[in-house]
Design a protein that fits this description.
Length: 200
């Protein structure tokens, strides 16, 4: 066979086919490498998005009477959740050893300071640690809302709490309206709890 008067070697077609195959494989390989690089670069962004969504966890809307919880506060005085009937109560189940519990305490304190005059209270019931440890924690974090030790897991059992931190928002008539699992952000408090305080 000739092309423009030149004779083509019999193996030229095979060589050309191999060259085309090599170029194709090079293109495919380069494409796969670029895809892999893109995936690697996008993973941190995806993880950040997941973390952000987790940080803004939405509470579950519920509707049931708050269980009776009677405990003794850090001063040895008898206390009960029913003592706050007529106020909006955020019962926060937590523990001194729980990192996300520690992280949300400044948020709860700041929100409490801004809303307690409107009839809102945080009741932080610690899950099972000794009184002295709970008192030291409350002091170190400057907590001004009620902090109750629960060494025998009375509240935990009553509210069927399985994960810490967990929060339950009780309206002024004693009905549990919201249930949270995980740390609470200020944005979530303003979006979901403030309307209950304002009577909306």
């Amino acid at each position: 066979m000739t092309v423009e008067g030149q004779k083509i070697h019999p193996g030229a077609k095979k060589i050309r086919a191999r060259n085309m195959q090599s170029i194709f494989l090079l293109i495919v390989g380069t494409g796969l490498i670029l895809v892999a690089v893109a995936v690697i670069l996008l993973i941190p962004k995806a993880q950040a998005a997941v973390q952000q969504n987790a940080a803004f966890a939405v509470p579950v809307q519920v509707n049931y009477p708050a269980p009776e919880v009677n405990l003794t506060d850090l001063n040895g005085q008898p206390v009960a959740l029913a003592d706050f009937r007529g106020q909006v109560v955020l019962y926060n189940a937590w523990a001194t050893w729980c990192p996300p519990c520690k992280d949300e305490m400044p948020t709860l304190e700041a929100y409490y300071q801004d809303h307690h005059q409107a009839g809102f209270v945080v009741v932080a019931i610690e899950d099972g640690e000794p009184n002295a440890e709970v008192a030291a924690f409350a002091k170190s974090y400057g907590l001004s809302f009620p902090v109750w030790p629960d060494p025998k897991w009375v509240a935990t059992t009553s509210f069927k709490t399985e994960v810490l931190p967990a929060s339950f928002v009780i309206d002024r008539s004693g009905i549990v309206r919201l249930s949270w699992v995980g740390p609470i952000t200020r944005e979530a408090l303003e979006q979901y709890v403030t309307p209950l305080i304002d009577g909306q």
